[in-house]
Structures are given as C-alpha cells and as structure tokens.
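Notebook B, p. 112. Complex prediction, attempt 2.
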Amino acid sequence: MRAAAQAALADLGRWRWPEVAFWVAAWGSWLLLPEQHLLLNEVAILGLFALSLDLVLGFAGIISLGHAAFFGCGAYVAGILARLGWGDPVLGLLAAGLVAMGLGFVTSFLVLRGSDLTRLMVTLSVSLVLFEVANRMAWLTGGADGLQGMVVGPVLGWFAFDIFGSVAYAYSLVVLFGLFLVARRVMHSPFGLSVRAVKGNALRTAAIGIPVNGRLVAIYTMAAGYAGVAGGLLAQTTQFVSLDVIAFHRSADVMLTLVLGGVGYLYGGLIGALVFKWAQSWLSDLTPEYWQFWIGLVFVALVVIGRERVFGWPAAVLRRIAR
Amino acid sequence: MIRRSFMAALLAVPFVASAQAQQTVKIGLIVPMTGQSQSTGKQIDAAVRLYLQQHGDTVAGKKIEVVLRDDGGVADTTKRVAQELIVRDKVSVLAGFGLTPLAMATAPLAAQAKVPMVVMAAATSIITAQNPFIVRTSQVLPQPAAAMAQWAVENGIKSAVTLVTDYGPGIDAETWFAKRMKEGGAEVLASLRMPLASPDFAPFLQRAADAKPQAMFVFVPSGQGAAVARQFAERGLDKSGIRLIATGDVTDDDQLNGMGDVMLGVVNAGHYSAAHDSAVNKAFVGAFKAANPGMRPNFMAVAGYDGMHAIYQALVKTKGDTDGAALVEAMKGLSWESPRGPMMIDPQTRDVVHNLYIRKVERVDSELYNVEFATIPMMKDPAKP
C-alpha cells in the first residue's frame, strides 16, 4: 500500500520530455537570441511572478487580486538594500523573498477568513494599503519619484549587469529555474497533493485529518516569497523601483498572464508570460498609440472563441504529447 | 561563457554610439502614449512629426528617423524601452521623457551608453544634474513658481496656500514659490501635497480654502488641470474671493478650452502660450492645427518641437557626427527663436533659459487663451547656482 502510493507519487513527479524540451529552449534562448535578452528578462520575471500566483490560485484555489503587494514588497526591499550599500544581488534577493514571505504569512490569516469574494477584496485591500504606505514613506521609498541611487553589485561578485541585459537574463533564468524546481518538487509531494485536495473540497479534506488552514497559510506564505523574489529580480535588473511595482495593474496583468497560460500545472504562468510580453512588445512597437486596444481585443477574442478550452490548451497539448 | 559575453558587452559599449556613423541617424522618442499622461505624448509626437514635415528628414547629409515608443508613464518600462532603443535600434539620441521619474530612471543608462537625452517634458530641476548627456528643452518648475510668487508679491497678495502634486516638480514648485513669497514679505499659510496617482482634488481644495488665504497657488502635471478647475468651481471657490494662481501647467492650452468660464481671469506664469504674439508662433500654431485637427499645441508640443530643433542644429554643428559627447557639446549655448519666444540652452547647466510670461486667461475669438501681459526675460533655473 505504502509502496504503491510512493510509486504513484514518483510517477507523478517524473520528468517528461516536453518539460525537458521547454527548459532546453529556455536556456537556448539565452545563446540564440542575444538581441532579445531585455525582453526575455522581463518574461522570466513575469513568469516567476505568475508561477507564484499559480501556487495560490491554481493549486490552493485562493483568488487573489492583490498579488502585486508581495511583488512590490520584494522590489522595495531589494531596492532599498541596494541603496543603503548592500549591493550584493543574491543576498538582496534572499532578503526580498524572506520579507515578502513574512508579509505573506501575516496577511494569510486575513485570507483564511471568508470565501472567494471576501478573499478578492482582502487581497486587493492589502495591496492598496501597501501602495499608499509606499507612497507616504517617501523618505524611504522615494514616493512617486521612484527609488533613486540604487547600486547593484555584480552577481556573485563576478558578473556585472550589462546594458544588453545578458547577465540580467541569465541571472533571472537561473533563479526562475531553481525556484521552479522547488515548486515542482513541493507540488508533487504529499504536501502538494493535500493542498490540491483543499482546493477540491476543503470540508472533506479536513475530515480526513489534513489541517486545511495550516496548508493554506503555508502555500500562501511560500507563494508570497516567490512573488517577492520576482519583484527583487525586477528591482535589481532595472536598478530602479517606482510605485508602479505595487500598482493594481500589476496584479491584474499577472492574473491575465496566468489565465492565458492555464492554471494549475506550473507551466501556465511561464507560457502565459511569454505570450503576454511578446504580444505586448510586438503590438506596442507596431502601434504605440493604440496597442492596448488590440491587446484587449485579442484577449476578448480568445475568451469568446475558446472559453475554457483556449486557456486549457497548453495543458491539454502537454498531456497529449506526454502520453 | 557568461563572462566572455559580458566582457564582449563591456567592450562593445563605447562603440554603440560611434558604430552608427552611417547615413541614418535614429532618434528614439519615448513618451507616454497611453495612460494618465497620454496627452503629453500625443502633443510631443504631433510636434515632432510637424518638425520633420516642415524641415525635411535630412540634415547635415544624414537621414533622420524617429522611432516612437510608448512607455505608458511607467518608469521601468521607460528604462527597458530606452535600453532596447540603444542596444537593438542603435539610436543616436533619446528624447521625450513625459514625467520626472521616467527621466530619472533612464539617466544612469544614458550616461553608461553615452547617448544624449533630450528631455522634452519632465521639469524637476535636478534632472539635468543626473548626467552630463542630458539637455532640456521643456521648462524647470522653479521658473514659473518663482515668477508667480514675484508677481503675487508685487500685486499685494500677502498670504497664500500652495497646493501641489506630491512628486519632484511639485515639490520644486512649492519650495520656490514659498521662498520668493517669504523674500517679498508675504506669508504661505499652508503647503498641501496631493498624490500623483488617481488624485481627488476636492478635499485638498477645501483644506486650502479653509485656511482663508488671499490666493491659492496650484501646480498639477499637464493633463490634470481640467479636473482641478472643475472641482474648484464645484466647491464654489471661484466665488469665495480666493484668487487662483498657478503655473502654466494647470491652464494647459490643450485643455483650457474645455475648462470653461471658471478659469476666466486666472493669472498664471508659464513659458508658452498658444496665443503668444509672434510671427514664429502664429506659423507654428497654424501648421500644428492644420496637421492635427482638433488639437491645439500646448507647452509640451513646443518643447518637442524645440527639442527636434536642438538635435537638428547640433547635427549641423557636428557636420553629421553622432558621437554623444560631441552632440551635447554642440547643443550647449544654442539659442534661437522658438514659438515660445527667445530661448537658449544654458552652456553650463544644459538646461533651458527662456522668457517667463505672466498671463491671464481670457476669451479670444470664442476660445480661451492664456494672454500674456508681463514678461520676465531670459530666466535661468533659479534652483541652479
């Protein structure tokens, strides 16, 4: 019995070739598309951010409209540390993740209360409150002028950030890959399965002896840390932080990104980020004035044509070719 | 591997500017075409296109190509777009910069790549001090603020409240208005700051009115003036006996017409009015309106137009050399007659020097205009020594 369960778990966590191909392509893009490193860096960061949302939305079923709170928190922590002279990127990133995790842990108790609609409001409110705090504490965050004077040292004391974004992209990709592996491992563990069970039916899950609230707090805290690291990456690679990192549209964009790529299978956020950023960059080059109209139209069309199926497509394709 | 490409990148940086000494000179124009500050982008874009149309796209034997990009008024996007323009499109000059944070975010990058940055909108004093490649053709907020205070003192205003947007240029305006008021023996009763994002002016206007000053001095960024005017009228403040005085940003030519009669008689200080009485301006306004039906050029448009002029003149002086340092050197000390009146690029600070006009909103031929009635000639940025 126990052996069978372990085998089933191991089978679930086995690497399939489309996954391998995905990461080979991701690393290949660093070598083959040097012109695109700046954009790809943003894709990697948005991908990590969307992965973080996937953990709470796709796996635990917590709807969040304020995920930018953690992203912004991480960005400001990394930014402020760099301004105070703690320019080491890896330490800064670690601090960004830990502080965001702390914030996630504290606010997770608010999220536990109430159902979906309440959660929507609570998460949104947390991000709005944080936005105003950042705006008010101009002596620390620079307020609406943005955080000036960040000095970010070379990664591991060796690779300085260049204006082509090559080091930035490699750095973001390494961090994304590392955190992805952790998320994959966690989600295929008994813990991950119990989190999924909570999403499926919280009452039954509680009935078989799984502490529902504990699971939600844990996954929410972990996701907050991921979002914080994503924010820290943005701050360090652009060497600038503005109030925009915590603005409502970040939360909305990341939700859109995740839904676009499909929820609940880890790759959705990454694929969504690629499609979203690429479409955004391509359309805004084509028509700087009206690109928002076109991008809106594309998304509306996707919903109208495909409904669930369109958003489920990457998962469906992956499942089919993996068989 | 990473290290090798990093070394290559480092070595390549100095060549970014000089490698483009070919036949086409690209100018990367980054402005907010979407979002809260989109009117700024649209005015600048229209003026830049007008300049190209009037002066041709060839100067000093080079073909000029303007690459327009939108940043939505978001600083990290501005920086990323600027980086792409430098690295991928190999632009020789960056221009635009709708708001102070956008210019500040890009400044270190332009310094690293040695690409001139022609600031056509952002107006905080410290911007030009960020790196030696920044040249400004818009305005500096201490200019209209100091000019306004000077006028207020001379016209018997003894007490005022300042009401500014809480970011770089607003704080500049507040500081310099208060400084000149105090020097003139007048009093600033309260200094109120309003948030930049999603502003609701009503409570601030009420608090300002509650202090019962003789005048209320207002600065908001271009595009937000109409909302201030509406809420000022809704609160009945136009009938309260408190004088509204402002920087020209509030009585923005682009929106002034839509603000209605509440703005009639409002005195403000600015460097450009579409009603400026000169042949150069009449030609500019006529051509601008013909090319962009339904739009009236404002101070953003004129800064875009003058920015292009500075770039063209610099290219003439360098005989087509696009080296960043040479271009900036050529722009220093340039002076010409702009639609706003005479203007100069200060050779020391690379900042704009121009006439400041005291204007009153009046109805001219059924349209509202800022009509100039006093001039402070060739004012430098008072915040720079």
